[in-house]
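Task: fold both queries, return tokens.
Query 1:
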Amino acid sequence: MTALRSLVERYLHAYNERDFATWADLLCEDVEVRADAGLMRGRAAALAFAAGTVRAFPGLRAELENVVAETADTIVVEYRLVNPDQDESGWHLAGSVCDIYRVRDGRIVSCHSYYLTDGADKTDVALLPSRTEAARIADRQVALRHVATLVARGVAQEELFAAVNDWIARLVGAEQTAMMRFEPDETVTVVAAWSVVAPATTTVGANRRLDAALRTIRDEARPVRFGPAELPATGAFVEEARRRGVRSWVGVPVVVDGRVWGASFVSTTGADPFPPDTEARIAAFTELVATSISNAQARAELRSLAEEQEALRHVATLVARGGSQPQIFAAVTEEASRLLGWRPMALQRYDRQGGVTVVAEHGVPGGQGAYIAAGGESVAGRVLRTARPARVDCYANAMGPASVVAHAFGVRAAVGAPIVVGGEVWGLLLAMSFDYPLPPRTEDRLAQFAELAATAIANTESRAELTASRARVVAASDDTRRRIQRDLHDGAQQRLVHTVIQLKLAKAAVATDAAAATELIDDALQLAQRATAELGELVHGIMPAALTRGGLRAAVESLVAHVNLPVGVEVTANRLPAGVETTAYFVIAEALTNAVKHAGATSVEVLAVDDRDALRLEVRDDGAGGADPTRGTGLVGLADRVAAAGGSITVASPPGRGTAVSVALPIGGAATR
């Protein structure tokens, strides 16, 4: 026994036992029950209906007879109502019932019930006007049961639409029936058609523009009819019907998940209009059609979600493995294009002027490397301005370079999602359409791929920056060693060599010329002293003694003592980890050097604050500004040194307004201190 059949049996058993606590527990809180009594929404309304039925007919029982059809989440069953009682009016409530149950997470989420009375109800006291009317209702129930079975079996929509058209024509006496789907571009497409005459006036697949009558059905979600008793109507749809001799027709909306999906139409050339209840009789079938469409859309959405997750997983794996940017860009555009039904897809990068270059594409007119200038109303322009997804549903009246390209290649609509790297809009992922506007969820689906592209770009740039930083560190180390070697060779080493020479000459002159020896010794002493001073300066440049002995404040005070500018110093007296003090010292030293040598500053302020978790530095001058952190070795070297210490650095240097170098260096816990 299947899980769905077991659920239905428990549901009916609980009803027969009047165990309404169990009965109600098998319903979802937001259950929807549709029966002859009308539409009931919610568990409480369904429970009240069941309790009222039992009060009216205490002996009523439901006996399961047959499972008509069953899918993963839908089951159609037939059961018989057995009832020895009758109410005050003589109504017996006895007959067969066809129920369609939709199930979610082991509970009934909807139940559509179709009741077919038996002979006990076809009496003079029954709530039916006549036996003829009873037969008509019976025919309707048979038709609904047949259509419900097709819905539960999940037949192709073409088969379902054809069956619905056929049954509606029989039940309302129509000469022609048609079902149409509303399209996003203000047209309708015929999805089913039936006619008692040949050739049919409407054919499957025909497409036409909306007119006032069709818009009324779509926008107001209500039936519309025209006939001899109605006021004359205008519009291409009505006029065409009149040319073909149609004197009366009725259109009923098909509402799927709260939105008007399409409409079902019946028409006749007879003089008499359709009966007043025609709309209600057609609506019963459109509800079943809506259920079928909703089920199909739900299944399609599940398939789409699974495909989407697989596509994202494929691209994410490529990103995680460190694939190259061209590889990842190609994968992003191809997977996104496939998920949108192979729509043209482009990954574009902005330049400084706001124009875009296609860096990857799939099915895009113009191809990779194409450039589109900035300007006009375009998706790329909106994305750049807002850093949010944007769309253009019709380029027909748009202006600008992007619109010119769109017109040239027949692109009618587009949707773009931003690729944000490091807080800046780097580019966008753009989907295009040659016909209809793209679906509403397109922005969300593109955004997921755009995020993966942004991650790949950030990873690649981080790797490139790390490689460049390492190369700069190695080059700086080599330059430092060469400078030390040069300074030693040209300075202290030369003086020490001369000292040795002088001392040798003095030694040779001691025995013969004491005065000359004394002079040579004095010269050697001066050379040695000068060599010692130069070595001290060299050592100070490598690691100042004041920093080692007295900490950051002492080192900074010693440093500014040699600067020929007014320097305001506010530096913490706390001793910090050696690595933090060293990094901070060289940041301040480099910033002071830039202020003196390059900025033409007249004053400098140095601030170093210990806030327990980080040392925050700021060196601000009143010089010329305009410093570019990406050019020259000084600021680039500082950035590398700060990054190596796990810190962050920002440089603000507007032209004519001075330069401010701000650094945050992590300190760590008390144990580190």
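Query 1 returned. Query 2:
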Amino acid sequence: MQPTPTPAYVIGIDYGTDSVRALLVDARTGTEAAQAVHPYARWKTGQFCNPARNQFRQHPLDHIEGLEAVVRRVAQHVPAEQVVGLAVDTTGSTPGPVNAQGVALALTPGFEDNPNAMFVLWKDHTALAEAAEINHKARTWGGEDYTRYSGGIYSSEWFWAKITHILREDEAVAAAAHSWMEHCDWLTLLLTGGDLATFKRSRCAAGHKAMWHVSWGGLPAEQFLEHLDPKLAGLHNRLFTETYTADEVAGHLSEEWAQRLGLTTNTVVAVGSFDAHAGAIAGEIEAYSMVKVMGTSTCDIVVAPTVEVGDHLVAGICGQVDGSVIPGMLGLEAGQSAFGDLLAWFRNIVEWPLHHVLPDSTVLTPEQQDALRDEMSDALLVKLSEAAAAVDHAESAVLALDWVNGRRTPDANQALKGALMNLTMGTNAPQIFRALVEAICYGSKQIVERFEAEGIPIKQVIGIGGVAKKSQFVMQTLADVLDRPIRIAVSEQAPALGAAMYAAVAAGIQPDVQTAQKAMGSGFAETYLPNPARVDDYAARYAQYQAFGRFVESATSGPDEPVMETEAPAITTA
């Protein structure tokens, strides 16, 4: 008889936009033993954010408090010594300034309430001007174009644009910041207590957002950074040269964090990653699959054999990086800056009276009133979806653009704005909501078409994330618009499961990522098939969406990307 293997568990820790979650899984089978979620307290109340300025900052205390809360809750389900590894994934690009010891500046005296000393969330677009400068100077400075492997257009959502903006805006932060770290790297350093100078930085974060590439020796040259802004002088040498894939060992839990989390110092900590990349692993991504991580925004992840893609560069995406998703394969990333966020925006518009018009109740306590408002808010999207699904296209020609938070891909331009057309006195809320759902699906179709036009075939589409799991209406519309099946992964916490897979490899339980996927994957819950009766109708409306987009972009050019001179299109309605 074969001896029974010692139980081995790993924890995937997934930092999303609004909350952090932890997933405890069997490192051999992927069986989920426990999960926990913790919302960010400061973020929930809007602290340190200014949506009117597209400023979205998060305090590291939100992340630390959440880390302790979720890991302790899941770790209590098994003996501490059986937890052999953990890994962190986060949103990105979400960089923050740190001192020489790797401590986030917002955790140091004098910077506790300074938003510029905090983590600059992925959807913060305060660096529009800096992104435009990077794009212009990368093409004109006379040396290497460092945007080549970032789709040829650098975004205000990314590492260098955000750093440059804050260094220009805040002299105190500029003077105190020894270095800068992506959120996934900082959390991993925090857990291991390692040395900042020798710490293993994330390949996916550096390659997709910081213009790191092996062909030019790592990060952009010091000369280019100084050319971009003298305030960047010297930072190059305080960052990093090498990067590491997410299946590698970053270190072990420090004594402090082993005690705080109820684990042991034998627990391996894997190199950090981005949530979409970890989610793609859990979605059982394989060559030429597109895994769509659908939440507040989308990230569309594709992997391809490096030898097949060769030196070909895909224009207008969020980078292509060797090993960023699966070691040994090329990872390609695209996405939309608003997906669920667009629908939430409309919900907030519609529910405004709930918060500002309804009188205080003499029967209900304030807490009960808040709970009732939350219940009504949750029900609103459900009712809107039901009514929108019943809208007859022949009775509504409303058309929308999904750019309320700019456009990530194809061809990043975060200065773009959303728009609606064909409104009449008969237009109602379900018709507008349906137009918004169609718009996010049309934006997805543009991404698929860009990959295929650039010679990267999309052989299957896999959906993960909150929208994929919760909204049949959105997913069926997406299948109809794309005119291809969409498989939905079973796991409710796909990024956390993917991080757990990385941890299982780093801890030596699984030999490689592909084996971990097969052993620990949860499979697929359902498949949405395109409705043939809808496909042609959506194809016609998609053409209108494209024409509408060209017109709006030509009329409202922004600094992220020069807009081609275009005549206003003749836009017809259905």
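Both queries returned. Flag for query 2: Confidence is low (pLDDT under 50) at residues 559-574.
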